[in-house]
Amino acid sequence: MRTHKIAVIPADGIGKEVIAAGLKAMEALQARCGDFAMTFEHFPWGSDYYRAHGRMMDADGLERLKKFDAIYFGAVGDPVIPDSITLWGLRLPICQGFDQYANVRPTRVLPGLTSPLRHVNGPELDWVIVRENSEGEYAGHGGRAHRGFPEEVGTETAVFTRTGVTRIMRFAHKLAASRPRKLLTIVTKSNAQRHGMVMWDEIAAEVGREFPDVTVDKMLVDAMTQRMVLNPASLDTIVATNLHADILSDLAAALAGSLGVGPTGNIDPEGRFPSMFEPIHGSAFDITGKGIANPVATFWTGAMMLDHLGEHAAAKRLMTAVELITRDPANHTPDLGGNASTAKVTDAVCEAIRS
Ligand code: GGG
């Protein structure tokens, strides 16, 4: 029997609710498939842990996580503790410490869901956004001077390296080459940002020569938002910087129906460290505890995790179950315009997995 060791970090807000739902689906899958097992170790890290211990995760956290095959993560963010502490104390140290430099965000309109775009009715919107996950504005460079004085200065330096850009470009080209349309859109802002972004353009052209079968086009990020709305069918695989892709993928998920259906994998493509899978949404404390969080993104990211672990049949079964139950509006949570609870959607998915 194949066994996979999974570290579970529900963290904050609705992260706890959707991960509980995701784990139920994983249990149903193991029982149904019968040829693999998963062991789950829970880590209580997050904002409550910070309140009790003064840190978001244990000092030896990365060392302890290293022995796992993958990490199933919920969400981070707190109404009181600043994001600069919660994000930089848990999610980013894991992504950066494990060099999960490729953040993969598939987006499509699941059966039964409605895009806010009138001209989208299904296959017109089928994208994978690749977010560079280790550099840019998230490199942590910058500073503050003359705090509290009128002369106060704050800088946030976007850092791009040849190694970092080359490897994400290669990853995105390979991914595009593996999809039927073999189409890659490279997003930058190289008209206004004339150093690092121009380097992106240059490296993109160099890497592109290694992939003659991939059709490449280039967009500035501002124009890209318009194209995503007006001509979604013209896009397939998309690669952008850490910050740009973060923004674009929230837009993408909303265009596919809701942020509640957007999954992501933080991948170490070289397989040196565990990769981490999470819904793209945050902790959503406005709905925490109400039992109405949408678990679909967490199921979908669970399918990505299973694929990553080589459990392709189980991943397919899970996505088939998700795509079966989303057809019924009775399984739509409020973010999708329905009134289903997290528990109802979870029960429906588990039932579909079993049948
Ligand atoms: N599950 C995703 C999550 O918790 N995101 C919280 C967040 O603040 N992310 C900021 C970012 O990804 O840039």
UniProtKB/TrEMBL annotation:
Isopropylmalate dehydrogenase-like domain boundaries: 5-349
Entry keyword annotation includes Manganese: yes
Cofactor(s) for this UniProt protein: Mg(2+); K(+); Mn(2+)
InterPro entries in UniProt: ICDH/IPMDH, IsoCit/isopropylmalate_DH_CS, IsoPropMal-DH-like_dom, TTC_DH
Reactions performed catalytically: tartrate + NAD(+) = 2-hydroxy-3-oxosuccinate + NADH + H(+); (2R,3S)-tartrate + NAD(+) = 2-hydroxy-3-oxosuccinate + NADH + H(+); (2R,3R)-tartrate + NAD(+) = 2-hydroxy-3-oxosuccinate + NADH + H(+); (2R,3R)-tartrate + H(+) = (R)-glycerate + CO2
Pathway: Carbohydrate acid metabolism; tartrate degradation; D-glycerate from L-tartrate: step 1/1; Carbohydrate acid metabolism; tartrate degradation; 2-hydroxy-3-oxosuccinate from L-tartrate: step 1/1; Carbohydrate acid metabolism; tartrate degradation; 2-hydroxy-3-oxosuccinate from meso-tartrate: step 1/1
Superkingdom classification of source: Bacteria
SUPFAM superfamilies: Isocitrate/Isopropylmalate dehydrogenase-like
Gene Ontology terms for molecular function: D-malate dehydrogenase (decarboxylating) (NAD+) activity; magnesium ion binding; NAD binding; tartrate decarboxylase activity; tartrate dehydrogenase activity
Record keywords: Lyase, Manganese, Metal-binding, NAD, Oxidoreductase
Enzyme nomenclature, EC number: 1.1.1.83, 1.1.1.93, 4.1.1.73
NCBIfam families: TTC
Function description: Has multiple catalytic activities. Apart from catalyzing the oxidation of (+)-tartrate to oxaloglycolate, also converts meso-tartrate to D-glycerate and catalyzes the oxidative decarboxylation of D-malate to pyruvate.
Family in the record: Belongs to the isocitrate and isopropylmalate dehydrogenases family.
Protein name (record): D-malate dehydrogenase [decarboxylating]
Species for this entry: Afipia carboxidovorans (strain ATCC 49405 / DSM 1227 / KCTC 32145 / OM5) (Oligotropha carboxidovorans)
